[in-house]
Amino acid sequence: MPAPEAVVFDAYGTLLDVNAAMAAQAVRLGDRWPLLSSEWRAKQLEYSWVRSLTGAAHYENFWLCTRDALAFVFANHGIDDAPLQKELMQAYSTLPAYPEVPAMLRALRGGGITTAILSNGTPGMLADAVAAAGIETLLDEILSVESVAVFKPDPRVYRLATRQFGCAPDDLVFVSGNAWDAQAALAFGMRVVRVNRTGAPDEYGLAEAGVPELRDLAGLPGLLA
After folding, report:
1. Quick one: 53 and 130 in the same domain?
2. Confidence grade of residue 161 (pLDDT, cut at 50, 70, 90)
């Protein structure tokens, strides 16, 4: 893969462990915490997509989508615990990075490759998250959808990266742990790498399109070398 102008990462589910907030409450939630975490993530994304598709008047930022999604999941499971909801939201603002992420980013930066985040998260959410994860000094740019007030997979989001770096889409490598996000970036014209931590089946014809797939991000510097 030719050297890119920059490597642009999705944040949640790619660099940051979206299940960590619920996992930390496993004692209180019991063995249902993985289901609750999965439903929270699914509803969070659903709210972002619906608010994008129904027009600018219905836009709410990602923090509010995340809060509303958690409230729905708790109500759906009959969990009446406002303090726990607050704790989970606080934990979501400081999600840890996956274990291999800091070394991977250092390797890219050591090889002279610019690194960036392109995320649905608000600027405040992303600033808190990368600081808590200890990776803020390993990123050159942090781009949020807030500047266009629409969520992924809208093409306007991916255009933020090409405008930031003043380049064509295929001068960038986009890395995501979300197949739908990878497909959207590919459709926009970016070179794409999919991170498939769970070994999920191929989606959207990504494999047929030649999109490299990694089990985690440790192999990314070698792929780009």
Report:
1. no
2. very high
